[in-house]
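Quality-control log, excerpt.
Job 1 of 2 completed; input and output follow.
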Amino acid sequence: MSFYFQLIILGLPIGVLWALLATSVVMIYRASRVLNLAVGGTAMFTAYVMYQLNLWGVPVVLALIGALAFAVLFGIATERWLLRPLRDKPMLVSVIMTVGVLALTTELASDRWGVDRQNMPRIMPSGAVHFAGIAVGLDRIFILAITLLVMAAVVYLFRYTTLGISMRAVSDDRRAAQLMGVPAGRVSTTTWALGGLLGGTAGILLSPVIGLTPNGLVFQSIPALAAALFGGLVSIELTFIGAMVLGVLWSLLPGISFGSLHLREVTGVQEAAIFLLVIAFLYVRWEALFGSELREEEI
């Protein structure tokens, strides 16, 4: 039993980091009606920016600040130069654009830094805490604490600040919000900046856990999308719960056995499970999520 409990504990930090990525997807979708599939690319490239700055001799703290600044500017540039001109186009066009951004960032990272695993500079304390016969790394505890604080700040932003109210107004009815004096364009740009910041933060925190490789971090878009779909691309709270469940499932799967079949011996079982969940969410909730937008485009 303690073995499975340790797997659950180890899955929680992964879950909260997926929640950061998924919250970025939800925020951007609510403000601009764009399903941002490039969030994994933002996370990956931000982590590489920090890695490169540290290689150039920049202190870790300054490299961290510089990388997060890059994530914010990358989000702003993506919205202003790539997606804003497509605002009146069908939703699928914008989604394809984000896929293009994801492919571009992956290719640039692979060409510049290669596909081999790189070692990120350490920003978390080493060591472990032992309780009930279970060892939990201090870095995982710090990741969990930092991410929970960030998620709490995001929830507060959405519910109790002028910016959050404006985001919700634009999400509910963009034209009506504009008529009421809400600067919808500025709200959209700010949301993309915050989305980039969340994605970059998740990439920097994830890379020491799963390794800094282009494809490894880009894959994190898939569980983030699954969690965002679980929340209906609207609810940050449900998105968080979905991401936590996925993180625990990801950690538990290799420890499950069916007789002589051990899932840890099945190549790609964790990735396959996440993909199946995304397909299931899309199948069940496609009409509720995208039906109205697609019908408007057909008209």
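Job 2 of 2 completed; input and output follow.
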Amino acid sequence: MTLRHVLGSGARDRGNVDNPGWVEYATPPQPLRDHGVACLGAGEHRSTASFRARTLASFAFIHVSRGNGWYSHRGPFGAERLVRAPALIWIIPGREHGYGPDSAGWDEHWTLFGGPAVQSFLKLGVFDPGNPVVDLDTTPAEFPSLFSRLRSALHTGGVAGGLQASIITQQLLLASSSGRPDVLPDDQRLLRQLRRYSHHPMTMAARARSLGVTLETLREVVKASTGMTPVDVVLEARISQAQTLLAETSLGVRVISARVGYDDPAYFTRLFAARVGVPPTVFREQQSRLPLTGSTGTISDQADTESGGDHSGDAVR
């Protein structure tokens, strides 16, 4: 089966795969195709081949590690773009597109993937259909090992191989953001500080000032690095800390509420239940790692969690 036959219909320009490298295809287990992330194939080679007017039924990404070329697609903002290694090309199902190296050829790794769970990666901002070519500062360090493992998993096949390929594909998707120029060491430091001091009661503007940036910069950095807003990052950190305290200590809900940044335990309880799916006391009953000595919460805790007004506007203060 040729590369053109498997990857999709469309005209292929004159050119060849100078170094065959390796190519593996798979028919993943049906549950992965119906509910998860299914890897349909992957490969690596040096090529001078180009595609034009091609449409795929699945997602794909191509990592260009050496060489230059072009990409274009039909539709808004689809004008031809320069691709300069290291770079990623994201292919969207149903979108007519083309890409290829210049006359010198390029080195590429690629994978085909699909399944409903891919939508979660889109919603989390791991890749953006509106930005199909992503310039990298460097090739993600994990890529060589992950592609090698992916080849082995696809070659193995069956349920075990399909599950391994699904997991490795998701790791590739996650690793794809590590080489982006918009995710810098200083940005990671800022995120760590934002999470570390999430329990401090202050407005987001005050948080930005304490971190030495403007509110606009904070929003841009957090969005680019995580796909989330600063408010969501703070809430996530607070709830995570509360879960740890509930599972690992005997502190009452009122105390835990205050420790993670909420002076109203009733509001904290509603917020916790909305995010986790159960109230703090139920979470403790399910997850506590302490010896069972009786009630998991005090009477005052229970009273606190059953009263109080709406503090939705103070969620991150």
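Post-run check on job 2. The chain has two domains: 3-175, 185-314.
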